[in-house]
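As a warm-up, study this chain.
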Amino acid sequence: MPRLESCAWSCSCAARGRHKTQPGDAATKADEMLSSGGPSQASVGRGARSPGGGAGSTLNWSRHLVQRSVVLFVVGAFMALVLNLLQVQRNVTLFPEEVIATLFSSAWWVPPCCGTAAAVVGLLYPCIDSHLGEPHKFKREWASVMRCIAVFVGINHASAKLDFANNVQLSLTLAALSLGLWWTFDRSRSGLGLGITIAFVATLITQFLVYNGVYQYTSPDFLYIRSWLPCIFFSGGVTVGNIGRQLAMGIPEKPHND
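Now compare it with the structure written out below.
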């Protein structure tokens, strides 16, 4: 009998203990539910802030795009003035007399047209690289870009200074130099394709301008222009493309709205 009474007493104590722990368990579960609701509330907060972050990213990307466009325009306009002055001084390019008495002995429309073309080409190169999924990483440094500019200026200088027996020999020499410039500072298929396309389109535009008497070339041997002019356009496109690629390094990507 004493043994039975001790067992009954222990069972009643255990039951009272379970009843006492139930409120604590309920509080614990409530705390867990509140704590589990925290991440969801945080995710809701992040979702509410996401539109503002996307707008800021778009604004930042647009600002970088405008800055790159301005830099490319200035570089293209300045290079056009300097290089065209050399062609005019060597009587390779002839402008009308009423036009020639302007800045750097060049027509007023040459700097803005060349600057706009440089901005378009410089923005197009990294855009094509991104579209093809082949980021250009060969010699991506400003020292290489400056050397590329120096070689391009040298090729343009050679077109006006070097004397060959005929324009065909000069054209072949400049073509080899232009391909060497691409191989040394670019080596990408997109760069080669864009350079050829730019040379073709720029040559057609130049043929049209010369045909309509806007200006002219002395001793034309390729319809109305010199046969080496496409080589200048090709090397210029590769050079401006390298500048545009270098300016595009480290900028944020354009956000996409899914």
